[in-house]
Structures are given as structure tokens and as C-alpha cells.
Amino acid sequence: MKTEDLKNSKEYKYGFTTDVENIRAPKGLNEDTIRFISKIKKEPKWMLEWRLKAFNRLKILKEPDWQKPKYPKINYQDLYYYSAPKGTSGKPKSLDEIDPKIIETYKKLGIPLDEQKRLNGIAVDAVFDSVSVATTFKDELTKKGIIFCSISEAVQKHPDLVKKYLGSVIPLSDHYFATLNSAVFTDGSFVYIPPNTKCPMELSTYFRINASETGQFERTLIIADKGSYVSYLEGCTAPMRDENQLHAANVELVALDDAEIKYSTVQNWYPGDENGVGGIYNFVTKRGACRGRNSKISWTQVETGSAITWKYPSCILQGDNSVGEFYSIAITNNHQKADTGTKMIHLGKNTKSKIISKGISAGKADNMYRGLVEIKNKASNSRNYTQCDSLLMGNKCGAHTIPYIKNNNSTSTIEHEATTTKINEEQLYYCNQRGLDQEEAVSLIVNGFCKEVLQQLPMEFAVEAQKLVAISLEGSVG
Amino acid sequence: MKNFYDFKVDNIKGLSAQEKKFRNKELDLFSKNGFPNKRQEAWKFTDLNTILSKNFFNITNDNISVKEKKFELIKEFDHNYLFILDGKLVSNEFKFEDKNKVLIKEYDYKNQISVSNQNSLNLLNNALATGGYYLEISKDYKFKKPLVVYNHFSESIKEQIISYKNSLILNENSELTILNYTDTNSKNNFFVNSFDYLELKKDSNLKNIFINKDRCNCYFHNYLKSDLKQNTNLDNYILSTGLKFNKIDIEINLNEEHAKSSIFSALSLGSEEHQEIKSSVNHNFKNCQSYQKIKNVLNDQSKGVYQGKIFVKQDAQKTDAYQLSKALLLNDNAEFDAKPELEIYADDVKCSHGSTSGSIDLNSIHYLKSRGIPEKKAYQMLINGFLSEILEKLPEDNLKKFLIEKIGRQINGY
Lengths: 478, 414
Hints:
The complex is a heterodimer.
Chain A: H1 3-8, E1 22-24, H2 31-40, H3 45-60, E2 83-85, H4 100-109, H5 115-118, E3 122-128, E4 131-135, H6 138-143, E5 147-150, H7 151-157, H8 159-165, H9 176-184, E6 189-193, E7 202-208, E8 219-224, E9 229-237, E10 245-247, E11 250-255, E12 260-268, E13 280-290, E14 296-303, E15 308-311, E16 314-317, E17 323-332, E18 337-340, E19 343-346, E20 352-362, E21 366-375, E22 383-393, E23 398-407, E24 413-422, H10 425-433, H11 438-449, H12 451-454, H13 459-472
Parallel strand pairs in A: 3-7, 6-8, 7-9, 8-11, 9-12, 10-13, 11-13, 12-14, 13-15, 13-16, 14-17, 15-18, 16-19, 17-20, 18-21, 19-21, 20-22, 21-23, 22-24
Antiparallel strand pairs in A: 1-2, 3-4, 5-6
Chain B: E1 5-6, H1 17-33, H2 48-55, E2 59-60, E3 80-85, E4 88-93, E5 102-106, H3 120-128, E6 133-137, E7 147-153, E8 160-170, E9 175-184, E10 190-200, E11 205-212, E12 216-228, E13 233-239, E14 243-254, E15 260-269, E16 274-283, E17 289-298, E18 303-312, E19 320-329, E20 335-344, E21 350-358, H4 362-370, H5 375-391, H6 397-412
Parallel strand pairs in B: 1-2, 3-7, 6-8, 7-9, 8-10, 9-11, 10-12, 11-13, 12-14, 13-15, 14-16, 15-17, 16-18, 17-19, 18-20, 19-21
Antiparallel strand pairs in B: 3-4, 5-6
């Protein structure tokens, strides 16, 4: 299929590729690749050592195999670990300096890079493949003392902060994919909100996987200092590909005393075609630590893309009175597989967590909620509420729920409930009767089913997410 | 770490060469993995290997010479009985029933049901099991009185593993209530690893109750496999036991239409007791129902675990499956872990689960105290109320009275 045809392809709106020459590290996972990445990023010595330490650890780790969605063995030596659009070695000062083709790509994606979009009040740290190309609204943020830049820039300009927090939530020795990321991460965002500051706008990053056979290893680190607030958006689209692409990102959040972080994701990567060929492997490690008293971390995710989604955004509730929230919609169609959920680990006193998960499965897909709620011995007066609902469309798909619940404190309460059903025929009939066709009716009912989660998204995202929900289920009924 | 067990197939007498070969093969498979630990999904919350290694020096399967022992019959209600000593069928009495309708004999290991799953304890059972019974109820026969299986363990047992298999077949349209009553005089440590097979043919009905007489140092693992045919009903009741360690692993296969099964459990645990229920209910056919309700009261350093799984096959439409586990934690050292799991491949189903755990409602305690009821009594009243939902469901009035009184004693010991 030519690029031209892809552009018009209805199946996947964002399935286009841009012809940008890439600078690539040679294929393969070894020390040289890591040194190459570190060198091209102009990293200080400690960063390189950190990466190598992770790499050494990786050698003794095994890929996990307990998950439900199985995937063909990944040849890690056959991947490119670094690929950057040409022309970023000297960073552009303004938008004019950027390759027009990249700008065009962003326009198709609707990224608010230009003046007109500025009215939306979104600062964008756009990631094209693996390098941050342009960062807008920096001045406005700088005035408030907010740092919003690429992680590579942060390594150079704010080494103290990076040194202190990088790997403090997801340690080097974590599981296989997290450690792999620590060794070879190429770029990502860094956010620091100073004490008693409310970030005036939603911070947003668009990730874009472009070059073929490039695993994306993003690393995001967000630190909300005492009494601060930040809302961060992450949205993903990717071009059509036949080969499976691996994406193993790490996201670390740290909330100190009285701080709040809201992290929203809309993930719409290429899910493979209706026969299950191609598609992205989305193996992401997201973890937040509520380190301070009265801190709060809230995860919201809408997962509609990827061949395999495998992630558990988690909260470690260390500070007393801290709060963790997880809102999720996972939609799987055709041959997609999702194994997602959260972990809420209560360590501090009076900690609270809430989990709302909505899984929708259609076609031949498998959708699974897997989550852990653990209340430790010292976390007195803690509370958790979990609700996971699944919706099945058709009898070839599967919906599964595996919650792990551990309560080790007599003053704490855990509540969990889950249901699995199909779309109510009466509701469908009612909608049909009033002139909605089958697909509109399904979209309406499913959006109603997901309402609790969609409400948590910031305005701009909520609209996009609602459309996505409808698009994802096209052709699944009837 | 040194091995804390030493099992030999040669300790079992009277085996044919073929049997020996089979048993040795199973033992080899077991030895590869040893006792289960937390790395196995089915043992996520329990490290049996560590528990056993801490409490045993050297477990063996030395043959035990069985001597007829006197045992106390339950006087509270009329019943038939089987007397099992250290896993071996010693005597039986069916004085309330038509003896032609009941077939009882020792378990025949030549036609043993091998369990094709990875649970290493089942492999171990295949290798070492001796004794046990085979019971078959004739077509259209309904038992008039309950059957009590006295599982008695002798005083001389120490550092031993006892393995046996039982098999119970209910033919068409038959009915039975069975009480598995475990009882021991032994103060020593021992480990019991048993396998039960239940087959319910069309229209049959079985009520299967588990209870333990007193607290003891017994470590118990029971795998219960059941196959249900059309229009059958299987109710399992798992009641408080007071065993040091107890894991009941229930596999229920609903193979034909309108088969129904349930698991009810009321547990009140104290000291360092560990009680685990693992269920896997497989809906293999349309229009079947399953129901599970587990209630735990946990005190001291006890631990309650519930791992329940509902599996619905693709063509098992109109399935109705329900799962609920609730726990009351009375002490900060007590722990409740749950993994209520749903795996569903059919769309026209009604499946739900719920799980709660928390403390006793202090407002209720306050309410009772303000009405002149001492605190201890108030706690007992609330615990009783919590468990009564399950206890009310027990069958047969006299039996029910007996069981409620037994559990009441355990609660009031608090």
C-alpha cells in the first residue's frame, strides 16, 4: 500500500508515514549501542554508568511469561535502539527551522504547535520517534519556575533533580522491560513543578512511532513538589506497520507533601489489521509514588489501540492521608489483547484508593483486568474501593478479571466488585426504535457504560476519547 | 536448604511392577518441583514449602500399622458412618439404610483416577496414596440419614505424610448428605494430602460438609474434583476447622445442562491458623448455575485465603455465576487475601463477584454496649450475625444444630 492510499484508509485514520531521514544506532542490544545513545545525547558520565548498570542487571533477568496475552519471541538484537529525525543535532530555535514534513504530520494529528493552537492553552513537548523536536510555551512555564523539557535536556541542565528522582519509583532492578528501558531509553518528558505552584495549563506530549523496527523506549519523570498541582496528558498514534513494534516506556511520578498529579492517557496505536497481523506491543511500566502527606496521584487511561496492551499504572501510597486513583477504559476488537489494571499499595495511615475499570471486548479479542490492592500492616484506617465491569460483544471474545486482594490491617476496608455482561438488548432496541442505526446505538450505550471514566479526562481529551470509543468498535455488531 | 522430606514408593507394600513404575514416575515429577511455593499461581498467597520446612524435620511415608481404635460417635443426631483411621477404611455402618443400595469398599488403585494437572501435591498423592474408600449409591436411592465420615488420625502419627484417595459415585436420582469429620488425638505434626473424586449422575443431589472436631497440629491439603451431569446439585459447606494449615482445592465441572453447584464457607480462625479455599468452577455447558459465598472471621495471627475462579466456556450461554467473599479482621496481625477470578468466553451470561474485607463495625459495638451488653459479648453477637448467613443454609435440622453449636464454641472462645 502506498502512503497515498494509507492516508485515505478509513480503518486507521492516523496510518501514514513521513519521509524523514533517520539517524540510527546500528541494530542490536549491547554495550556499544548504549554508549552510542549516551554519547549522542551528550550525557554526563554518571548517566552512562547508570545505563550500563541497568544493562548488566538485564543480563540476568528473564522476560516475564505469566501474562495472558502471549506474543512471539522478540529478537532484541534485531531492533534499532536509537533513531532520530535528521537535523536535530543542533536544536531549532523556532518552528520555522523544523522540517516542514514533521510539521505536516503534526497537523494531521492535530497537535497544537502553531499560534492558533496556542489559544487552547496546551504546551506540547512533541516526541517524533525518539527526540523531542520542539517545545512550546516554555517561557510561560519558566516564569512560574516550572521545568518542562525532554529528559535528555534535564539530564544536562538539572542533573541534581534527575539524579535524585530517576529510578526512585521504578528501580533499576525492576522487571525485564523496565530494566531494558533504563538501559536504552532515548527520550521522553521531564516535568518539575516547584513548591506551591499550580501549573497553569495542561502539559501534553504526543508520542509518535515512525521509523520501522524501532522500539520506542520513552522515559517520563514528573515531580510535583510540596503543595503543587499538575495535569499531564499523553496521547499516542502510530502509522501502519506490518511488523510488530515494541514499546516499553517507563513513567515515574513523584508527589511530595500536599501535591497532586493527574496523568491522562489516550492510547490509539496501530492495533493490527482484522486478522491480527501487525500492531504495536505496548509493554509500559507506569508507577507513581505518593511520597508526601496528603498527596494525590490520579491515573486515567483510555486504551483502544495496540495489538497487545500490557500495563499496570500503579500508586505507592507512602505518605499519610495520600490518595491514589485509577480510571480505565480498555477496548479490544478483532485480535487485540489487553492485560491491564493497577496496583494500589497502601503503606501510610488513612490512605485511600479508588479503582474504576471498564473493559469492552469485541471480535476475537481478549480483555483482562488484573490488579493488586494491598493494605500493609501499618496502614491503619485505609480504604479501597474497586469496581471493574466488563462488556462482551459477540461470543468469540473473552473478558477476564483477576484481582489480587491483600488486607493485613484490621482497621482498613477493601471493597471489590465486578460484573460481566453483554449489551442490553432492550436498550439497543429502544435506540433503534428512535432512529439510531446499530452502530450509533452501540456507540451511545458504550459511551454511557464508560461515562464514569470519560468524565475524569480533561475536556480536550474527553471529546477525542469519545470519538475513539466509537471508532474502535466499528463493525463489531451486526 | 536440607530436604525435610524423604518419600519412598518402596514403603508401600503389595504393589505390582506396573503400579510401582507409575508411582515412581509421579514421585520423580513431584521431586522436580518439590512442595509448592508462591511462584506458582495457584499458591500465590501461601508458601507451603516454607511452612512445612519450618515445622517438620523429616516427613516420611512409613507404613503405619492400623489398629482398631475406639472412637466417639456423635450422639446429637442419628447417622450412618464410615470410620477411617489414618486414611484407611476400618469399619462402616449403614443401619438406617437399605444395604443393597449402598456399595462400599476400599479404593481400587488399579483403576485410579489420575489428575492431569500441574499441582505437585496431586502428583505426590498419585505416588503415595494408599487406603481410602469407594462409595456408590444406587439409582433412585435417597439416604434417610446423613453419612458421617470419621477421619481419625492416631496418636502415634508424627512427622508423617498420609495420602489417600476417595471416590463417591451418585447414580441417577440419588441423594446423600455427607459430613467429613476430622478428628485426632495426636499432638504431633503430620501432613495429610488427599484426593476426592465425586461423580453426580443425572438428577442426583449431594450435600458435602467439612468440619474439624478440635484444634490440632495437622497440615491438610484436599483436592476435590467433581463432575456434574444434567440437573444435578452439589452443595459444599466448608466450616471452621482449627487445623494448623488447611487448603481445600475444589474443582467443579458443570458438564451438562441445569447442573448447579455451590460453595458456602463460614470460618472463624484464631492463633496461627491458616485456611485456604481455592475453587475453580468450570461452566462447560449452557444453562448451569454456580454460587459461592465465603465468610471469614480472622483473629490473632491467622490467615484466610480465598482464590476463586469462574471459567465460562464459549458455548456455555445463559450461565449464572456468582462469587462473594467477605472477611472480618479482628487483629492487625491477621491477614485476608483474595483472588476472585473471572474468565469468560460466552457473552450471554450473568457473572459477578464481590470481595470485601475490613474491621468490625465500631458503631454497632457502641450501640450494643450502650444497651448494657459487655464488649466481649457484643463482639460475639456481631460475629455470630456475620456467619449466620452461611450457617442458616446448612441442611437437616439436627445436623445443623450440632454444627452451629460447634462453631459457636469456637467463636465464643474468642
